[in-house]
Amino acid sequence: MSRLTMNPRSALHALKPYGQGTVEVESLLSYFCRLAVSHSVSTLTLSRSIAQRFSREISPDYDWHERKISGCGDSALTWSAALSALTSVEGLDRLTFLPWSEAIAQNGLSLVSKGQFCPDCLADDVTHGRTPYFRLAWESAEVSVCTKHGNRLSQRCSCCQRENIRHSAAYVVPGWCTHCGEFLGQKPELVTTEAIDAAALWKARQVGELLAFQFTLNDVPRRSDMLLCIKELITEMDGGQSSAFARRIGIAKSTIHHWFKDNGTPTLSVTLKIAAHCGVGLTDLLTGNLNKWTAPTIERQQVLLLQHPTAAWHPTPRTIDWNEIEKQLQTFLLLPTPISVLEAARRLNLEARQLYLRANRTTRQLGERWKTYLSRRYAATVVRAWPYLESACREIWSEGKTVTRREIVARVPADILSPVAHLLDVLKEVQTHLHNVGCIETAIPATSA
Ligand SMILES: [Zn+2]
Ligand SMILES: [Zn+2]
After folding, report:
1. Could you tell me if 61 and 163 lie in one domain?
2. For the chain, does the N or the C end have fewer beta carbons within 10 angstroms?
3. CA 51, 52, 58: angle at the middle one, nearest 5?
């Protein structure tokens, strides 16, 4: 068997995520912490080494716990892809809210800043012989109770009474207080007798169902489908009058206008309100599925069949045929001159991060092949600077300019560039390479400026 057809060894332990396909699915943040524990390194060390490996996308100065790595934004995509690449565990984006990135406004998905947890769930983990872990549902600010145990989620260690005990330390072992080291699966001595609000329980159930459902998704649910669904609800519930619907939900009319005219996307909190007022499940609403829905009869009003105005939809997200992509990647593996994962992604009109998440093994093979090729040919400093130089060259060409030392210095961080010896020769090689791999621009010899 040739080296190429083997599965390259993963750089980090291939831990299996907990609770996939259930309401108890693990969060990416928890997975990351368990990974650090499994390698006996601090979370800071692990985040630094990931940053180093993916230096173009993660700055080592970032506080990893400040990044919303379990959310639905760009850092969730970067971190899940980086961890998939390093552990060889595919699909780690499903430990985040990313599957809903089209249907939930990125800045409208509030995540809790201080970690919250259910002590009974952590105690259950130990009872069942699992490593305690943080659930993804606990990340959402819309979730304040555990649907399994009917508890209010806790933010405090019952022993030392401190808050923010989840990730304020260099070593985080999910389930134990980072301050006093006590197990968090213990009930506080003074159990609050405060009754759990039915609305809070309903919201937690809705988010839980959403997270269980996302494991089965092949494509990201589309914003346009969800908005069509909302439009139908407005028609059915309020005769097509947005202002009446806005009043019903308790939002400004301009907010609805913003969704349909300015490509706005509802926040999770508003989507939950719509779901509650219209009697439709959150998952059905976000996937645009009203098949099972009938308007609540008491509130049903005369339905006006209005012509729907044409809304300015987002472009339809591309449906990706991953079998086809896999075939293409296989052909890339056989190219006489290896190409980088970034280059492969560029040719497929995808992001490298998507390749790591959905075509993990072949993508890592490509990455290994590229790395071996580079390190055989060039010194480590050049290997490190290479991706920066490639993207700088592309950028310079796209601006119609010639690659000069000055243009490069303006684009590549000094700590990357200064160790590179014979920069102009290296630049020539980078450009020749880009030319050979079919980068559309013509390679222009570097000149000093
Ligand atoms: Zn619980
Ligand atoms: Zn404590």
Report:
1. yes
2. N
3. 30
* Interval between CA 99 and ligand 2 midpoint (Å): 34
Report if residue 185 sits inside a domain. Answer: yes
Residues 142 and 270 in one domain: no
Are residues 233 and 199 part of one domain? Answer: no
Structure tokens at 440: 């559309």
Question: Are 202 and 235 within one domain?
Answer: no
- CATH number, domain containing residue 245: 1.10.260.40
Same domain, 175 and 57: yes
Are 130 and 252 within one domain?
A: no
Query: What's the DSSP call for residue 443?
Result: P
Identify whether residues 341 and 418 lie together within a single domain. Answer: yes
Question: pLDDT of the chain along its 449 residues, tens only?
Answer: 444 446 677 788 999 999 999 999 999 999 999 999 999 988 888 887 887 776 554 554 555 566 678 888 888 888 899 899 999 999 999 999 999 999 998 777 788 878 899 999 999 999 999 899 999 999 999 999 999 998 899 988 888 888 876 666 778 889 988 888 889 998 766 555 567 788 899 999 999 999 999 998 888 899 999 999 999 999 988 889 999 999 999 999 999 999 999 889 999 999 999 999 898 999 999 999 988 888 776 544 433 333 344 444 444 556 788 999 999 999 999 888 888 888 898 889 888 888 999 899 999 999 989 888 888 777 778 888 888 899 899 999 989 999 999 999 999 888 888 888 888 889 998 898 888 776 554 434 444 43
CA 392 to chain centre: 26
For residue 15, the CA-to-ligand 1 centroid distance in Å is: 23
What is the Å distance from ligand 2's center to 280 Cα? 41
End residue of a domain, out of 182, 217, 252: 217
- Kindly identify the ligand whose nearest atom is closest to the C-alpha of 150: 1
314 CA to centre of ligand 2 in angstroms: 47
C-alpha closest to that of 10 among 341, 343, 329, 356 = 356
State the residue range of the domain holding 63: 1-217
CA of 224 to the centre of ligand 1 (A): 35
Q: In total, how many domains does the chain have?
A: 3
Query: DSSP states of 343-370 as a string?
Result: HHHHHTTS-HHHHHHHSHHHHHHHHHHH
Ligand 2 mean position, distance from CA 189 (Å):
14
Asked if 183 and 158 touch (Cβ cutoff 8 Å), the reply is no
Sign of CA dihedral 319, 321, 326, 331: negative
Assigned domain for 260 exists: yes
* Residue 243 sits in the same domain as residue 331: no
In-domain check, residue 257: yes
Is residue 354 within 8 A of residue 81, CB to CB? The reply is yes
The model's pTM is: 0.74
